[in-house]
């Protein structure tokens, strides 16, 4: 018997969206900023500090006493939630990202641009 020659049709993988299709990805590559640095900067910026915990404690104590008066605060406390790798990957690939996460990314990018003596950007420039 003659062996039949079988041809396997090779399937091409579905075209994945390129990382450079989004505004954020093109901006980071043009400014030579590594996405891992954005995650690291966000962690440094968003980590709760003792003064943030004190602000939150004062807010809770004032809430329990009633509405006698608002506690005097100099600034809002940090969120304590940094940008995650998963959120950064979603933002780079063009998937949906929540508003607070977008703000955290912008805050971290602005911090890195400030270190490089660059101008700050706004949310619309990246998303």
How much beta, percentage-wise? Answer: under 5%
Helix-strand sequence: HHHHHH
Task: Give the terminus-to-terminus CA distance.
Answer: 64 Å
Radius of gyration: 23 Å
User: Low-confidence stretches at least 5 residues in length (pLDDT < 50)?
Assistant: none
| Annotation field: number of helices | 6
Biggest pleated-sheet summary: none
Mean pLDDT: 85
Shape: elongated
Share of helix, binned: 40-55%
Oligomerization = single chain
User: Could you say which structural class the secondary elements and strand pairing correspond to?
Assistant: mainly alpha
Strand tally is 0
Overall description:
- There is one protein chain.
- This protein is mainly α.
- The chain is 52% helix and 0% strand.
- It contains 6 helices and no strands.
- The longest helix has 17 residues.
- The model has no long low-confidence stretch (mean pLDDT 85).
Summarize the entry for a quick read.
With 127 residues, the protein is mostly helical.
Layout of strands and helices, then pairs:
Elements: H1 23-30, H2 35-46, H3 50-65, H4 85-93, H5 99-115, H6 123-126
Helix pairs in contact: 2-5
Structural key phrases:
127 residues, mainly alpha
């Amino acid at each position: 018997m003659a062996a039949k020659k079988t041809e396997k049709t090779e399937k091409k993988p579905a075209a994945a969206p390129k990382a450079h299709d989004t505004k954020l990805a093109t901006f980071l590559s043009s400014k030579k900023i590594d996405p891992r640095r954005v995650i690291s900067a966000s962690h440094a910026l968003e980590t709760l500090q003792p003064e943030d915990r004190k602000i939150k404690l004062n807010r809770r104590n004032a809430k329990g006493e009633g509405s006698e008066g608002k506690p005097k605060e100099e600034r809002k406390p940090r969120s304590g939630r940094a940008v995650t790798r998963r959120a950064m990957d979603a933002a780079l690939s063009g998937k949906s990202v929540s508003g607070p996460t977008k703000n955290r990314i912008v805050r971290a990018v602005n911090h890195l641009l400030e270190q490089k003596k660059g101008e700050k950007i706004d949310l619309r420039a990246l998303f």
